[in-house]
Amino acid sequence: MRERIREEEQLANKDMLIAQDIQIECTNDLSRAMPILNAAKAALDTIKPAHINEIKVLQNPPSHVKMVLHAVCVMLDRKVEKTPKKDNPKVLEDNWWYTAQKFMNEKDFLGNLQNIDKDNIPAQIMARVKKEFINNDNFKPNRVAQASFAAKGLCEWIIKLKEYDEINRAIQPKRLALKNAQASYQ
User: In this predicted model, which residue has the larger pLDDT, 151 or 32?
Assistant: First the structure.
């Protein structure tokens, strides 16, 4: 009986050490993620409603501004609005700029960005953001800044959210392993 108790204690101690190791890994990963998340928040904090107002009244903004606002719409899973083509009004086409203008006109646009569920952005959205925007050489804050201060902040926000998302996705299996390891010794 004592031998069995000792074996169970040894097994529980081993599981506890495994759980502690996993927890250290998670903590280390999170310590890398938090400055990135703080940088994303700081990028948004540079933008004031007046900056957004300057952008949303543009009828034909610079391509960099359009691209950044398109990326914001994709990041928040906005559905593209369709508008008549200029050369053929009977045919509708995707109009991301119109979609972005409507989104920017919504109450608390910046608050909606700040309150994004950063831990649960769907993988297909992040894949699309990376493919269509992050990998684009023109989607760089220093290039976008030449066109718009607010677009620069939005660009930085998207880039930092993508970086945070990559770390967060790497941590997810570790969190599950930690939960399982903790359950095994309790």
Answer: 151
